[in-house]
Design goal:
Blueprint: H1 2-23, H2 27-39, H3 48-58, H4 63-75, H5 82-94, H6 98-107, H7 113-125, H8 129-141, H9 148-161, H10 164-176, H11 184-196, H12 200-209, H13 215-227, H14 231-237
Helix pairs in contact: 1-2, 1-3, 3-4, 3-5, 4-5, 5-6, 5-7, 6-7, 7-8, 7-9, 8-9, 9-10, 9-11, 11-12, 11-13, 12-13, 13-14
C-alpha cells in the first residue's frame, strides 16, 4: 500500500515537471526527464501520454514512435480516458491519417466538445471541408455546444468550400447561442471566411464592428479586397 502511494506520488511529480518543461519549450530536457523516469522502472499513465505525444510532436519524431505509445495505451486501458483519446485523434490528423482519427472517434462511447472540436479541426486542416461541416452539424444535432475553437475550425472549412450560405448559418448560430462576442480570433475567422467567399459586404461589417483588430485581421480584409479586384479600397485599408 505504501509502495503504491509512493509510486503514485512519483508519477504525479514527473507529470508536473514534464508539463512545465514542455510549456517553457525545454524539449530536450523534457526528453531527458522522461528517459530518467523510465529507467527508474516507471511507466506512463493517462496523464503522461498526452504530454509525451506533444513532446514527440515538438521534437518532430516519426509516426511509428507515437504508434508505439498508442499500442501501450490500448494494452493498459488508457483509451477509456477521453483526454488520451483526443490526443491520439489530433496526432493522427497531424500526419494526415484521417481514417485512424475517425476510427478512434467512432469507438469512443462518450464524446465531449473537445473531441468533437478535434474532429472538425482535423478534417478542416486536412482539406476535407465537407466532412468538417457535416461533423459540426452532427455535433450541434446531438446537443453539444461548440466553443470558439470549434467555430473557428468550421469557418475555415466554409472558406475552403466557398459556400457563403454555410458561413452565414454559422454566424447566425454563434450569435443566437451567445458564442459570438468580442473575441479577436473568432471575429477574424468570420472576416476571413466572408472575404474568401467573396462576400466583402459582410466581411467589412464584421471588421468595422470589431473593438480590437490585429495584423491577421487586417491582412484578411486587405487580401479579400485585393483578390476581388478593388484596388482603391485595398489601398485605403492598407
Amino acid at each position: 500500500m505504501l509502495a503504491h502511494s509512493i509510486k503514485r506520488s512519483s508519477c504525479y511529480s514527473f507529470n508536473s515537471i514534464l508539463r512545465t518543461l514542455l510549456k517553457s519549450g525545454n524539449f530536450e530536457k523534457a526528453l531527458h526527464h522522461f528517459v530518467q523516469f523510465r529507467d527508474q522502472g516507471f511507466l506512463p499513465d493517462n496523464y503522461t501520454i498526452p504530454s509525451l505525444l506533444k513532446l514527440l510532436h515538438d521534437l518532430h519524431q516519426p509516426l511509428h514512435y507515437r504508434e508505439n505509445i498508442h499500442s501501450f495505451a490500448i494494452k493498459n486501458g488508457y483509451l477509456k480516458d477521453i483526454f488520451v483519446t483526443t490526443g491520439f485523434v489530433e496526432m493522427y490528423f497531424s500526419f494526415g491519417c484521417v481514417a485512424s482519427s475517425r476510427q478512434l472517434f467512432d469507438e469512443t462511447p462518450i464524446k465531449d466538445v473537445v473531441l468533437w472540436t478535434a474532429m472538425v479541426s482535423g478534417f478542416s486542416h486536412n482539406g476535407s471541408g465537407d466532412l468538417a461541416v457535416n461533423f459540426f452539424s452532427q455535433m450541434v444535432g446531438e446537443g453539444v455546444k461548440p466553443n470558439r475553437i470549434t467555430l473557428t475550425s468550421v469557418l475555415a472549412a466554409c472558406s475552403q468550400l466557398m459556400v457563403p450560405n454555410l458561413g452565414r448559418s454559422v454566424h447566425g448560430f454563434s450569435i443566437r447561442n451567445g458564442i459570438f462576442s468580442s473575441d479577436v480570433l473568432l471575429e477574424t475567422a468570420f472576416v476571413d471566411m466572408y472575404a474568401k467567399s467573396r462576400n466583402l459586404t459582410y466581411s467589412s461589417k464584421v471588421f468595422e464592428r470589431m473593438r480590437d483588430r490585429n495584423s491577421v485581421t487586417r491582412n484578411a480584409i486587405i487580401t479579400g479586397h485585393a483578390n476581388s479586384q478593388f484596388p482603391e479600397r485595398t489601398f485605403r485599408l492598407f
